[in-house]
Every structure is written in structure tokens, then in C-alpha cells.
Specification:
468 residues; alpha/beta; Rossmann fold; seven-stranded parallel β-sheet; six-stranded parallel β-sheet; 13% strand
Length: 468
């Protein structure tokens, strides 16, 4: 059997139907290398950046080999977050649904009923988080006696988020004879420890340069900023860049809440996701951003794990990442599957030395840029608005365009003759730019140079009210 997979022709027509529904024309590099080894039943460790196509690399061999007639769990895919578990389950479900392979997501923070119904009915593939899976196992609600495949996705995070005790306990429920795959964007010592505990003479595949290469399609740069100016400068950069969609990373939940509130006050279409939110609230935010109804997501690293947003154009580190691995995970949110992206970092004070260190460890150079001036932001927004107007006017028949110009030109001339008229015209242009989308009116469209202050007031944590 070939050591690489050049196309999907060797899969059954039912699996190829799922592949087409996922929009995959040809195997990605990680799929080319991993699928032949998965077909040989060998254990393996795969080092590949986030967004490189890992789910297809392990998902396709799984749905190819499980027995759809056997209503028992035959594949268990472990993920560090519920969002990632949901994403994996959704993709694997599409891969196998035409072959009769059923996949479900099992994770904490959600109702037991649907999960119990699925387990009682019998499913072949489960993607889930360690805590809820162990809960089902210890209460005899989940049977892994027929398990063929055990997969750890984002294994470095499975060990860095305190899951290791649960992982070892789960191992006691897993058959010794099985195939195990470990997938990780980085390969620190804790990941090597996991491989020794779970894997048997694994083959190693690296699609990174020592585990530190980042996608070539991503443009990286950073700004050196004063801590007390960061929120004003973030606003200015967002206005200058005007991303189609972006994740803004913060290191603490307090920063997430503060930045979200600040941007919303400035008329920016932003919302947050953080660990203290209910599952329903998190899913509501994720539904909005995936539907293109939300432009900016503010999140901590832990809360953002497993988030998959198509065509995410920018990743912005409002607070510098605390480790080289964290930086790789952050930028893995953009530039996915060959698409382009931009990674921007705000670096201040004591973070400068750490930021140089992460560049050394990741063997990359992240150039510094100057914060765009307020005038540059104004000019860029004016250009974008002019281009939007020009584009929309081209859609009108020439006769209608001439009539509109003849009718409204006198009105415009009258408006610009007075200060009140200019303000009314500015408001009309603002409304036109929003195209009728309901958003709060900004108190400040452009962040001008402001006097330095002692920084934003520290957000106060509100006491959560218990429901009666």
C-alpha cells in the first residue's frame, strides 16, 4: 500500500459522497501522510498545526473501518473542549452518514437526556471531552469493549488543562488491543509522556519544521504599546484593518469582559465567550459569528479552544501569549486550509522579553509596525466608504443614476452649507455603511490621540444570582 494518499478514489462511493459534501477536492498534506498509516492499523503521533485537516486524517479511516451493523462504540475521539468535540462530531458524521456510521458529541455543560438516548440506541463513533466521558464510563452508561480506535486531538491541550488524571482513569476502560492516534500542534514533554502511556511503538509524522513552522499564508506583525493605551489602540487598529471577522485574545476573563464592553460602547460589533458563561449563551454567540452576524469575538485561550470559524481573517492578541505554544494555537485560528490570514500582537512592558523568546522558540521573526495615525484611519475609512458607494451605484441602471444625481445634488449642496447639515449628512453616511443593521451608535468613530491615563478601571466581578 502506498505511503501517501494522492486522491480520495480508494474510498467507497458512500464515503466519497460525504467528502464531497465537506467540499474537499483533494487530500491535504496531513491526510496524504496519515491515512495510509491509519489503514495499516499502526499507532501514530502526528504533529501538525491547527486547521491543517487533521479531522479528515483520522475521521476518514475511522468511518472506513467501523462496522455500521454493530451498534457499539468503535471509535472514541477525545478533545479538550466541547466546541472542538462538537466540531469533530459534525465533520465525522458527514463523512460516515451515507455508510450508516453514526457519530455523536458527548460533553459537559449539556443535558444528559440526548446523550443517554444515543448511548442506549447505540452509536459507532463518539467525540467528547474527558470529564463527561469518564462520568458515563464510571456509571456503566458507556461500553468501550468493542473499541477499535482511540484518538487524542489537540493532545497538548488535553494535558495542559488538568485532564491528565481523568485521561489515566479512562485508560482503564479501554481495550488493550486498539489503534491509537495522537494529534498535537506542539510536542512538549507532557505530550511525549502521554504517548508512552497510551501508544505502542508509534510512527511519528511531522508536518512542521521541528513543530514550530506556522502557515505561510499568515502575515504576522506586532505593535509595541503602552499598557494604559491598549484599548484605545486596539479600537484604532480594528478601524484601520476593518477585518471581515476576528478573534481578539485576552489572558483573563476580566480583560475579556472589559474589552467587549469597551468595543460595544464604541459601536463595534463585538461579543465575548469565556468560561463562566452558560453553554446556551456560548452557543448563541457561536451561532451568530458562524452565521456572519457577529464580526468580532473576544475570548480567553481556554474558552476559544475548538472554535472553528470559516474565513476568519484576523487573530489579535490584545494581551501577549504566555508561551510559544499558546501563540501557535492562537494563530491556528486563521489561515486555515490554505487560506490567508493576519496575526497581530499587542506587546507592552514586561511582555517584550517573553515575546522575543517565543519568536526564538518558534524560529520565526514577527516584524514590528507603527500604530496607524488617526488621520490614516479616517482616510482609509473614507476610501472604503467611497468604494462601497461606487460599487453600489454601478448596480443601478444609468438612467436611474442620472435622475438620482439630478434630484439629490441640490439637497447635498444645501446640507454641506451648514454645520448641522454636515452632521446630518455624516449620520446618513454612517447609516448607509451599516446597511440597516442594528448597531449602537458609536460615541467615537475614530480613536484620536488621547492623553495618557492610569489605565482602564479594573472590571468589577458581579455576584451571580442564583435561580430559585
Amino acid at each position: 500500500m502506498s505511503d501517501t494518499l494522492s486522491n480520495f478514489d480508494s474510498f467507497s462511493e458512500t464515503i466519497q459522497q460525504g467528502i464531497r459534501e465537506l467540499g474537499w477536492a483533494n487530500p491535504m498534506p496531513v491526510q496524504e501522510r496519515v491515512i495510509p498509516i491509519m489503514r495499516r492499523d499502526a499507532d501514530l503521533i502526528v504533529q501538525a498545526v491547527t486547521g491543517s485537516g487533521k479531522t479528515g486524517a483520522f475521521g476518514l479511516p475511522i468511518v472506513e473501518k467501523v462496522d455500521p451493523e454493530l451498534r457499539k462504540i468503535q471509535a472514541l475521539i477525545m478533545a479538550p473542549t466541547r466546541e472542538l468535540a462538537i466540531q469533530i462530531a459534525a465533520e465525522v458524521e458527514i463523512m460516515g452518514k451515507h455508510s450508516g456510521v453514526e457519530t455523536i458529541a458527548i460533553y459537559g455543560g449539556s443535558a444528559y437526556g440526548p446523550q443517554l438516548d444515543a448511548l442506549e440506541r447505540g452509536v459507532q463513533v463518539i467525540a467528547g471531552t474527558p470529564g463527561r466521558i469518564l462520568d458515563h464510563l464510571k456509571n456503566d452508561r458507556m461500553d468501550l469493549s468493542k473499541l477499535k480506535f482511540l484518538v487524542f486531538d489537540e493532545a497538548d491541550e488535553l494535558l495542559s488543562l488538568g485532564f491528565w488524571p481523568d485521561m489515566k482513569e479512562i485508560a482503564s476502560f479501554v481495550p488493550k488491543k486498539r489503534q491509537t492516534g495522537l494529534f498535537s500542534a506542539t510536542m512538549p514533554e507532557r505530550v511525549r509522556s502521554l504517548s508512552r502511556f497510551f501508544l505502542n511503538e508509534p510512527e511519528f509524522i511531522s508536518l512542521t519544521d521541528g513543530g514550530v513552522r506556522t502557515p505561510e499564508e499568515i502575515e504576522h506583525y506586532h505593535y509595541i504599546v503602552q499598557a494604559q493605551e491598549k484599548e484605545h489602540l486596539l479600537l484604532r487598529v480594528l478601524q484601520y484593518e476593518n477585518p471581515d471577522s476576528a478573534i481578539v485574545f485576552c489572558n483573563t476573563r476580566d480583560d475579556v469582559r472589559f474589552i467587549t464592553a469597551y468595543l460595544q460602547r464604541k459601536g463595534i460589533d463585538a461579543d465575548m465567550i469565556q468560561g463562566e458563561m452558560s453553554q446556551a449563551a456560548r452557543e448563541k454567540v457561536m451561532t451568530r459569528i458562524k452565521a456572519g452576524e457577529l464580526k468580532f469575538l473576544i475570548a480567553t485561550d481556554i474558552a476559544a479552544r475548538g472554535i472553528d470559524i470559516s474565513d476568519l481573517s484576523h487573530v489579535i492578541s490584545y494581551t501577549a501569549p504566555d508561551s510559544p505554544e499558546t501563540y501557535l494555537h492562537r494563530i491556528g485560528r486563521t489561515g486555515r486550509a490554505g487560506k490567508t490570514g493576519t496575526a497581530i500582537s499587542f506587546v507592552s512592558g514586561l511582555d517584550i522579553a517573553n515575546f522575543r523568546y517565543l519568536q526564538q522558540v518558534n524560529r520565526m521573526t514577527i516584524p514590528e509596525r507603527q500604530i496607524p495615525a488617526a488621520d490614516a484611519v479616517l482616510n482609509r475609512e473614507a476610501t472604503r466608504l467611497a468604494n462601497q458607494i461606487e460599487h453600489d451605484l454601478r448596480e443601478l441602471p444609468e438612467r436611474d443614476l442620472l435622475l438620482l444625481r439630478e434630484k439629490y445634488l441640490p439637497i447635498v449642496e444645501k446640507l454641506i452649507a451648514t454645520e448641522d447639515g454636515k452632521r446630518d449628512l455624516a449620520a446618513a453616511l454612517y447609516g448607509y455603511r451599516l446597511q440597516g443593521k442594528p448597531q449602537p451608535t458609536p460615541r467615537e468613530d475614530v480613536s484620536v490621540d488621547e492623553p495618557k491615563t492610569d489605565g482602564p478601571p479594573k472590571p468589577q466581578r458581579k455576584r451571580r444570582r442564583r435561580r430559585s
